[in-house]
Amino acid sequence: MQNGFVLKNRVREIRQQQHLRQSDLAEEVNVSRQTILAIEKGRLNPSVYVSLRIARVLGVPVGHVFYLDSVVREPALFAEAG
Q: Is the model's pTM score more than 0.70?
């Protein structure tokens, strides 16, 4: 088995606690609403710059918004050509 890490975030959770809409956060961070949506769904890993701006707008440390979560992957099985 291989151990790895995946970037996770709490953007949606923190944004909702602060009663912010995606469009409000996007405007403050200077990105599109679709970018915020993709980040919240884990489909887009933001740049360090965007991550820092999101954390600043939300008023929390960047390490509280974005974090690494460990994952365990099974080794890839290769079929023998014969």
A: yes
